[in-house]
Amino acid sequence: LKIRIVNGSVANEGRLEVALSDGDNWGTVCDDGFDMNDAAVACRMLGYSGAIEVHCCAQYGQGLENIFMDDIECTGNENSLFDCPYAGWGASNCDHSEDVGVVCSSPCTGNENSLFDCMYPGWGVNNCGHSEDVESIDCWLFTEWRVILQGGGSYYGRVELTNGVSWGTVCDNNFGSEEADVVCRELGFYGSQSYHLGALYGQGTGEIVMDNVVCSGQEESLLDCQHSGWGVTSCTHSQDVSVVC
């Protein structure tokens, strides 16, 4: 099972959509009985620590294709929504006005302009001592990063980002044709012919820098798309994504 959240204003919120692992036919989830336990499982699948909100009634817009899951009943401890009881794949008495949305718990997505734009307990609210003060951070200028293809040829290969010193791969979670088009146009091509999951052109060796990338397909750069946050991932290099432009 593949899972994604779309149509939110930030990467950690949106309409919940699912697809079979070997396909690219995405569908929505009905809000019947969907609660925080179900949302927690969905958010953990996306690499977040949990969920903070569930929204019924297509708050993030109505999907256009199938409704694949309904009457989900998770305890909250499952690893996948597929591990939870539900009505059956494609079995639903809902319409898209009942598409469910979630907000996953993520202090920062990595796309904010300020720490004040991230979720936090409140100004001065903490359970820390000064022994836990952040000592320092090392910053990169994102304008220095660019997309390259590795392990293949001039128009195909493993998607990586580099600043000329460090390299990082992109996880294949939720990666589809829209994301592949953005990569290929960023490289100067008209678009993509195909994308491939599962490290088709070999596994990278550096950091996995992007996961759960969601593009509309119109962005100028992969860095303009929503994602889990820079370096935030639950993937291994066996999930490095590749494209053919």
TrEMBL record:
Q: Which cysteines are joined by disulfide bonds?
A: C30-C94, C43-C104, C74-C84, C108-C118, C171-C235, C184-C245, C215-C225
Q: What PROSITE patterns is this protein classified in?
A: SRCR_1, SRCR_2
Query: Start and end of every SRCR domain?
Result: 3-105, 108-140, 147-245
Q: Tell whether Disulfide bond is among the UniProt keywords.
A: yes
UniProt keyword terms in alphabetical order: Disulfide bond, Glycoprotein, Receptor, Repeat, Signal
Q: Which InterPro entries match?
A: SRCR (IPR001190), SRCR-like_dom_sf (IPR036772)
Gene3D superfamilies registered for this protein in UniProt: SRCR-like domain (3.10.250.10)
Top-rank lineage group of the source organism:
Eukaryota
Any one Gene Ontology cellular component term annotated for this protein? membrane
What is the purpose of this protein? Binds to extracellular matrix proteins. Binds to pathogen-associated molecular patterns (PAMPs) present on the cell walls of Gram-positive and Gram-negative bacteria and fungi, behaving as a pattern recognition receptor (PRR). Induces bacterial and fungal aggregation and subsequent inhibition of PAMP-induced cytokine release. Does not possess intrinsic bactericidal activity. May play a role in the innate defense and homeostasis of certain epithelial surfaces.
Subunit structure and binding partners: Interacts with LGALS1 and laminin.
**What is the name of the protein in this document?**
Soluble scavenger receptor cysteine-rich domain-containing protein SSC5D
Record organism: Branchiostoma floridae
